[in-house]
């Protein structure tokens, strides 16, 4: 069975596959869900962060949700991540919660006891961090615990830096020259240790040495170099899909949207990006998509935008919309997060 969690602007959708099709449940309506994470040790445990209503968890696969003990007063939750490389107490993944202003909280006991991580705010580049829509602040946009080394954590600050820790968050290394400035999504892959994939507002970047050096690879994107989502085939680290637009306004502003999905395959290095629009909604009027690979099924991707949830079973060449109810209300909302349990 495949389970999909999708956070829209005002609702969390839990979508399960079955022999009779897809079953959809709506939760946390009106609580502004912003971010999602799954626990690899517990198939029924998942987390949902909200912009101003705290952190929630489920232990029954999404049927019911309970607010956790994390005190988020004065902060918004902007990102969540779990580390399958690091088992905490009671066999839970280590959980990371990224906030605005830029702070990370971590828990090793399934969200009861918390540790604050904020030493990275002392990095030299921190004085220039600023999120353009709210220039007086910045936030932890993405947290990527490395899937090959439990001590490595990569954090994207929006906007201004992609930073890393090689000791589990005790100390931090600042951004490097020629690296991505505005990473929205970052991926690591079990089959290619040290490789990083960054979808950033300033283009697509890859590193093959844990972020010490970076390569900008935008051939084929044209002027669509504002990137938001990236997903990598769970079986083929060279098969990648990204979501893109010409600028932030075209990506997020409901009245002026024009967005695209591109793919690259495994035929050699530095391949040109090609459009992946077969079966996806028209680019105009579509919020920039959030992308995920199925972690258990090769060549399978999922795509979330304001028009629906779409799946591809041929490595991003073509897409099919999931046959689920999709209200006009959803069409007018901005999706924020997508996770898939295969």
TrEMBL record:
Source domain of life is Archaea
Q: Which Gene3D superfamilies match?
A: YVTN repeat-like/Quinoprotein amine dehydrogenase
Q: Which InterPro entries match?
A: WD40/YVTN_repeat-like_dom_sf, Xyloglucanase_GH74
The GO biological-process annotations, alphabetized, read as: xyloglucan metabolic process
Question: What is this protein called in UniProt?
Answer: Ycf48-like protein
Organism of origin is Candidatus Nitrosocosmicus oleophilus
The organism that produces this protein has a lineage beginning with:
Archaea, Nitrososphaerota, Nitrososphaeria, Nitrososphaerales, Nitrososphaeraceae
């Amino acid at each position: 069975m495949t389970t999909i969690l999708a956070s829209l602007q005002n609702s969390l959708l839990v979508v399960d596959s079955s022999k009779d099709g897809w079953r959809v449940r709506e939760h946390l309506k009106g609580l502004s869900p912003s971010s999602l994470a799954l626990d690899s040790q517990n198939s029924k445990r998942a987390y949902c962060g909200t912009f101003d209503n705290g952190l929630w968890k489920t232990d029954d696969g999404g049927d019911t949700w309970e607010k956790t003990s994390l005190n988020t007063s004065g902060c918004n939750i902007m990102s969540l991540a779990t580390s399958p490389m690091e088992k905490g107490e009671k066999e839970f993944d280590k959980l990371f919660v990224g906030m605005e202003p830029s702070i990370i909280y971590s828990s090793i006991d399934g969200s009861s006891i918390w540790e604050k991580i904020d030493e990275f705010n002392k990095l030299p580049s921190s004085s220039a961090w600023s999120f353009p829509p709210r220039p007086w602040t910045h936030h932890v946009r993405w947290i990527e615990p490395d899937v090959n080394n439990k001590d490595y954590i990569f954090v994207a600050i929006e906007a201004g830096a992609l930073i890393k820790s090689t000791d589990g968050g005790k100390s931090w290394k600042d951004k490097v020259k020629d690296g991505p400035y505005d990473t929205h999504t970052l991926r690591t892959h079990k089959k290619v240790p040290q490789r990083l994939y960054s979808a950033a507002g300033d283009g697509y970047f890859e590193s093959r040495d844990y972020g010490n050096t970076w390569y900008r690879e935008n051939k084929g994107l044209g002027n669509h170099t504002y990137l938001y989502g990236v997903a990598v085939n769970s079986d083929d680290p060279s098969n990648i899909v990204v979501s893109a637009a010409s600028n932030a306004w075209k990506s997020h502003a409901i009245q002026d949207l024009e967005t695209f999905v591109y793919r690259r395959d495994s035929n050699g290095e530095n391949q040109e990006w090609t459009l992946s629009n077969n079966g996806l909604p028209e680019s105009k009027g579509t919020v920039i998509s959030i992308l995920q690979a199925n972690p258990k099924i090769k060549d399978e991707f999922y795509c979330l935008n304001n028009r629906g949830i779409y799946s591809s079973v041929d490595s991003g060449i073509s897409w099919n919309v999931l046959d689920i109810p999709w209200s006009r209300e959803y069409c007018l909302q901005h999706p924020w997060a997508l996770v898939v349990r295969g």
